[in-house]
Amino acid sequence: MKVLALNSSARAGDVSKTEIMLDCLVEGMRDAGAEVEIINLAKKKIKYCIGCFTCWTKTPGKCVHKDDMTGEIYPKYLECDLCVLATPLYHFTVNAQMKTFIERTLPMVQPFFVERDGVTMHPLRHEMPPAVVISVAGFPEESVFDQLKSYMNFLYGDRLVAQIYRASCEMLKTPPSGDTMKDILEATVQGGRELVKTMKISPRTLARIKKPMTSFNKMAPVGNLAWQTCIDEGVTMGQFQKRGMVPRPNSIETYLAIMKMAFNRKKAGDARAVMQYRFTGQVEGDCYLKINKGKITAAPGSVKKPDLTIESPFEVWMDILTRRADGAQMLMEGRYKAAGNTELLMKMGDFFGES
Ligand SMILES: Cc1cc2nc3c(=O)[nH]c(=O)nc-3n(C[C@H](O)[C@H](O)[C@H](O)COP(=O)(O)O)c2cc1C
């Protein structure tokens, strides 16, 4: 089976969630014996359709443009046994690069009007290849893909053999990646294998690929903090991620949410520790973190017999968390107090962050 995979993301590498998902799908397809070529549309020269309809009249089936679409992509599209259309969701549909490609497939149809099931159509000059759409979106609800789904169904009809929609995709490969994310990526590989073997993806595999990773209530507080931190520090989200920056909490609730998110159960192993925080200053109140055999409890209030008690102005502790200040130096300068097993201060890195 010859597969043409068109990736329209403007981003590349681990920051491109389209690429992450597509690479998994392609891995599975190759594993099942398919010959797959990936083309990055953003790196190609594809001119806009100018609506001259020359491809319908003077040169039937042939576009006037001379670019990578006419020279390379269109012939490959006509020849392939299966085409994968991989696009990030932009404004609830395909992005501009993918739309430009789609518009440039106009030579596939003839100019005449025919009616099918009460709807006006143009007859096909060439059979469309079977297609798979794979798309990723930032929002957590699957309904974010409703418009794209409807568009793709209309465009490809029964030639659309599979639709893979991955919401809350910005969490993919965001450290520390959990088991859910690993399973989503493994299921996508499996989806690729199934497509080559059966020309479809089983409902079970699709359900694994689409498994909800988060909800608005879980995502928005931490996501908003991350964006606010980018604005305050004058960095892009890409720089924020590359530098391993931490969203700066602005309340006890968001501090606890960040600590829960950053907890790395693999690194923590079977360690046990109870940390009590007593905050003063900009944000006042108590909270604690309990680490116990790969699990974390993070809650407001106090706990009996903590291993370590930190008394700190909230802003000082947040400076340390976001690496604006050095924890050891702040302690020496008396900017915060630590009582109990102070060795735990050094061990924080064993519990949180990337492996
Ligand atoms: C211009 C633009 C429009 C976007 N529109 C949406 C949208 O309508 N819904 C959504 O959930 N995410 C939207 N996003 C988020 C992207 O779908 C998401 O960041 C995705 O990871 C991008 O794919 P990439 O990582 O391959 O670039 C948009 C992003 C950009 C840059």
Largest sheet strand order: 2-1-3-6-7
Task: Give helix and strand order, one letter per element, not per position.
Answer: EHEHEHEEEHEHHHHHHEEEEHHEH
Reading off the top of the CATH hierarchy, the class of the largest domain is best stated as Alpha Beta
How many separate domains make up the residues? 2
Instruction: State the CATH topology of the largest domain.
Output: Rossmann fold
Topology, element by element:
Layout: E1 2-7, H1 17-31, E2 35-40, H2 68-79, E3 82-88, H3 96-103, E4 114-116, E5 119-121, E6 131-136, H4 146-156, E7 160-166, H5 179-198, H6 203-210, H7 216-233, H8 237-242, H9 252-262, H10 265-268, E8 272-280, E9 285-292, E10 295-300, E11 308-313, H11 314-321, H12 327-332, E12 337-340, H13 343-351
Parallel strand pairs: 1-2, 1-3, 3-6, 6-7, 8-11
Antiparallel strand pairs: 4-5, 8-9, 9-10, 11-12
Helix pairs in contact: 1-5, 5-6
The protein binds flavin mononucleotide.
